[in-house]
Design a protein that fits this description.
Elements lengths: L40 H14 L4 E5 L3 H10 L22 E5 L6 H11 L5 E5 L1 H5 L21 E3 L6 H17 L9
Parallel strand pairs: 1-2, 2-3, 3-4
This protein binds iron/sulfur cluster.
The site of iron/sulfur cluster has 12 residues, from α4.
C-alpha cells in the first residue's frame, strides 16, 4: 500500500486549493494563494502618489566643479544610462526639475544663487549633495571662500561621499532617494 500523501507521478500535477491540500507534496507555491490583495485606502493613495513620483525624478543639474564631469558621465554615457530609471531628463530650468544635484565646490558667491534656484523649483523637491566639497567643503575645509556644506544653505536628502564619487555612486544615491520618496507620507514636505 503506498504511503499517505504519495503523489501519482503518472498523472499531470494539478493545482489544488490550499484548503484541500493534504501535505507539502501537494502544495505548489503561488498556485493556491487567492488572487486578492488587501490594503487600506490611505496606503493605496500613498502608493499611487509616490510610485510614479519616485520613477520620474527629473534632475536639475548643478555642476560646479570636477564632480560635474562624473554627473555628466552618469547622465550621458551609454554604459551608465540613467534613462532606464526614468531620470534622464536633465533640466536647465529649476521650474521643470524635481531634484537638484549639487556636484562640486560651492563658493560663497554662488550660495545666494543656489538658494534662489532651489526656491524656484516646484514642490515636492529634493536635493542631492554629490562629493565631499558639496558635503562639507572637502579639501577646502575651513576655507573663507567655500561654503562648508551645501546643507547650510538648503535641506539635503542624500549625501554622496567621494572625491569624486563615481557615476555608480550617483546612481546609488538616486536609488536611495527613490526609496525615500516611496516611503514618504501623503503630505508634501513643508505641509503642516
Ligand atoms: S569633491 Fe573632489 S572631485 Fe568633487 S568637486 Fe570637490 S575636489 Fe572636485
Amino acid at each position: 500500500m503506498p504511503p499517505r500523501n504519495a503523489r501519482d507521478v503518472s498523472s499531470p500535477r494539478r493545482a489544488i486549493p490550499l484548503s484541500m491540500a493534504r501535505g507539502p507534496d501537494e502544495y505548489v507555491p503561488g498556485e493556491q494563494e487567492p488572487g486578492v490583495l488587501l490594503t487600506s485606502l490611505r496606503d493605496l493613495l500613498q502608493w499611487a502618489q509616490n510610485y510614479p513620483r519616485s520613477r520620474s525624478i527629473w534632475p536639475f543639474s548643478y555642476g560646479l566643479a570636477c564632480c560635474a564631469i562624473e554627473m555628466i558621465q552618469a547622465a550621458s554615457a551609454p554604459q551608465y544610462d540613467l534613462a532606464r530609471f526614468g531620470w534622464e531628463v536633465f533640466r536647465s530650468s529649476p521650474r521643470q526639475a524635481d531634484v537638484m544635484i549639487v556636484s562640486g565646490t560651492v563658493c560663497t558667491k554662488m550660495g545666494p544663487r543656489l538658494i534662489r534656484l532651489y526656491e524656484q523649483m516646484p514642490e515636492p523637491k529634493w536635493v542631492i549633495s554629490m562629493g565631499q566639497c558639496a558635503n562639507s567643503g572637502g579639501e577646502f575645509y575651513d576655507s573663507y571662500y567655500i561654503v562648508q556644506g551645501v546643507d547650510t544653505l538648503v535641506p539635503v536628502d542624500v549625501y554622496i561621499p567621494g572625491c569624486p564619487p563615481r557615476p555608480e555612486a550617483l546612481i546609488e544615491g538616486l536609488l536611495k532617494l527613490r526609496e525615500q520618496i516611496e516611503k514618504q507620507g501623503l503630505k508634501e514636505r513643508g505641509e503642516q
